[in-house]
Amino acid sequence: MKSLLADANIFLRFFLNDVPAQQKKAAQLLQKAKDKKLNLVVPQIIIFEIEFILSKYYLFPKNEIIDRLQSIVGVAYLDIQDKEIFQRALNIYKEKNLSLVDCFLVAKSEIEEVDIFTFDQKLSALK
User: Fold this and answer.
1) Are residues 11 and 66 both part of a single domain?
2) How many domains does the chain have?
C-alpha cells in the first residue's frame, strides 16, 4: 500500500472549505485512507501546526480546535505519530490552561514514565 505524508493544509482545507476544489481533493484523500487504499502518515509537527494556524490565524476558540484535532487523532485510519500521546495531551489541553506543546510534554512524560525538566512554573506544577 502506498504511503503519503500529510501536510497541515490537507486538514485545514477539509475543515475550513475555504478553497472548495482543495477541500474536495482533501476529502477524497481522507476517504482513500479510510478505505485502506493508502496509508496517510501524519507527523506530530502537523498536529502542532494545525493548532497554531487555527488559534493564531483563524482565531478559533480552544474548544473548536480541540474538536478538530480530536477528529484527526481519534480516527483509526490515519497513521498519527505519537497518537496515544496526542490523545492524552488533548484531554489535558481541554482541562488546563497550558499550551498544546506543554500538554504533549506532560502526556509524554506520563506515558513513557520519564520526568520533565523545565523552568516553566505552570508546567512544573503538573509534574
Assistant:
1) yes
2) 2
Answer yes or no: do 111 and 74 share one domain.
Answer: no
**Residue found under cell 520519564:** 114
Contact 107, 97 (CB under 8 A): no
Q: What is the pLDDT along the chain (127 residues), one digit of tens a residue?
A: 899 999 999 999 999 999 999 999 999 999 999 999 999 999 999 999 999 999 999 999 999 999 999 999 999 999 999 999 999 999 999 998 899 999 999 999 999 999 999 898 887 777 5
The number of beta carbons lying within 10 Å of the beta carbon of residue 18 is 10
Same-domain status, 104 and 74:
no
- Report helix, strand or coil for 95: helix
> CA end-to-end span of the chain, whole Å?
41
**Which residue segment(s) compose the domain that 120 sits in?**
87-127
Q: 42 in helix, strand or coil?
A: strand
| Phi, psi dihedral angles at 43 (to 5 degrees) | -65, 150
